[in-house]
Amino acid sequence: MTVHPVPARSDFPADFRWGVSTSSFQIEGAGREDGKGESIWDRFCSQPGRIRDGSDAQVACDHYHRYPQDLDMARALGVNAYRFSIAWPRILPKGRLGLGAVNEAGLAFYDRLVDAMLERGLDPWCTLYHWDLPQALQDEGGWTVRSTVDAFVAYTDVVTRRLGDRVKHWITHNEPWCSSMMSYWEGVHAPGGRSLPDALQACHHILLSHGLAIPVIRRNVTEAQVGITLSLHPITAASDSAADQAAVRRHDGLRNRWFLDPLFGRGYPEDTLALLGEAAPAVQPGDLAAIATATDFLGVNYYFPEMVADDPTALHSPMRSRLVERHGVERTGFGWEVSPQGLVDLLTRVQRDYAPAVIQLTENGSTFEDVLTPEGRVHDAERLSYLQRHLAALKQALDAGVPVKGYFAWSLLDNFEWAEGYLRRFGLAYVDYPTQRRILKDSGLWYGRFLNE
Ligand code: FCB
């Protein structure tokens, strides 16, 4: 394995964007406060057996009340950008205009939050959808029905009219893979669906809503920079056999190309469509053109690579491939393979095949068992090493000509990690949930030194 020196901030361009990433449902808490409506994640958490530790996010990190202190911490780290998301049910408790009024208290919260970022010199990067769909819309079918697309565009209009004078960076969706496939097919995320056709239709509607929201954002926000964030994976074959190589191509078709191809104007990949057969989504005339609306950047979330083998018996998977665990590699607490090289491979591949003008690495991070010492320290050597090696990999990709312009560490704080509840800590800061005390871990202290050097 190549050993790269730990980079310094000065190894990166002076205008590089350094940030931390968060999302509304995972940190805010205040689940029923100030008129917020129920989201699909509130509902999912209330169903026994859905969340591994039986928890919910009604309080989470109580960021709704503690945001000034959290943003102080972000400023002290030295980041110049802060990625957050809006909870749709705070703005439209019933999901759409017509089903109720806009909730002024919800908008006022994001006014305060954005103002607090600007006061601290943090550039706000706003994600419109990080998975907390209003339950009222799910009651109508959620992302599987086309009317949710219209609801998203109307919600985007409300939010960008209000915040667009101050927020210039907009991400329509976070990781459509998760909000469609994991949510409507694999059953592990809200709303817990188990149908591949539903998931593919949901995915199409999510991508369509992205495309249709772009002109609305541009109309309401002068000098808007708009993009979408995808979770992407470099994929390798379990062996040199032709069958395994072919499995890589199939797996990549659904995992990566299914999103990248239509966003970059190529429509859905033909080979993947052929494998999906009747499960393929209904696409109306004009949809693909809308999805391909030009953006200003591509957001990439990178966590881990995947290795696959051919598996004709994998009947549950239209890709007839199976994930294979690489032996003898480092893994995070989640079991995800640690591979800084995977980041280089992924970014150079995206650049080679799609050539986006700008890439923003909108999430990257790791979870490990953290221990708070009696002295009040968290010596998270593995997370620190993960961060340093991924920054070295990022530098390598930059040197190879990939136009990556920013890095956002996931996450500022330990938080509610979806179906894992509070069992997985990803923060640069440890959250002691009973007291809500925040303690910068060694990784966070290092990120601060790196940024402030
Ligand atoms: C990503 C999600 C983010 C967080 C990290 C660990 O898939 O976007 O909310 O859960 O994984």
From TrEMBL:
<feature type="active site" description="Proton donor">
    <location>
        <position position="175"/>
    </location>
</feature>
<feature type="binding site">
    <location>
        <position position="174"/>
    </location>
    <ligand>
        <name>substrate</name>
    </ligand>
</feature>
<feature type="active site" description="Nucleophile">
    <location>
        <position position="363"/>
    </location>
</feature>
<feature type="binding site">
    <location>
        <position position="130"/>
    </location>
    <ligand>
        <name>substrate</name>
    </ligand>
</feature>
<dbReference type="GO" id="GO:0030245">
    <property type="term" value="P:cellulose catabolic process"/>
</dbReference>
<comment type="similarity">
    <text>Belongs to the glycosyl hydrolase 1 family.</text>
</comment>
<dbReference type="InterPro" id="IPR017736">
    <property type="entry name" value="Glyco_hydro_1_beta-glucosidase"/>
</dbReference>
<feature type="binding site">
    <location>
        <position position="303"/>
    </location>
    <ligand>
        <name>substrate</name>
    </ligand>
</feature>
<keyword id="KW-0136">Cellulose degradation</keyword>
<dbReference type="GO" id="GO:0005829">
    <property type="term" value="C:cytosol"/>
</dbReference>
<feature type="binding site">
    <location>
        <position position="26"/>
    </location>
    <ligand>
        <name>substrate</name>
    </ligand>
</feature>
<keyword id="KW-0119">Carbohydrate metabolism</keyword>
<keyword id="KW-0378">Hydrolase</keyword>
<keyword id="KW-0326">Glycosidase</keyword>
<dbReference type="InterPro" id="IPR001360">
    <property type="entry name" value="Glyco_hydro_1"/>
</dbReference>
<keyword id="KW-0624">Polysaccharide degradation</keyword>
<dbReference type="InterPro" id="IPR033132">
    <property type="entry name" value="GH_1_N_CS"/>
</dbReference>
<protein>
    <recommendedName>
        <fullName>Beta-glucosidase</fullName>
        <ecNumber>3.2.1.21</ecNumber>
    </recommendedName>
</protein>
<dbReference type="InterPro" id="IPR017853">
    <property type="entry name" value="GH"/>
</dbReference>
<dbReference type="GO" id="GO:0008422">
    <property type="term" value="F:beta-glucosidase activity"/>
</dbReference>
<feature type="binding site">
    <location>
        <begin position="417"/>
        <end position="418"/>
    </location>
    <ligand>
        <name>substrate</name>
    </ligand>
</feature>
<dbReference type="Pfam" id="PF00232">
    <property type="entry name" value="Glyco_hydro_1"/>
</dbReference>
<feature type="binding site">
    <location>
        <position position="410"/>
    </location>
    <ligand>
        <name>substrate</name>
    </ligand>
</feature>
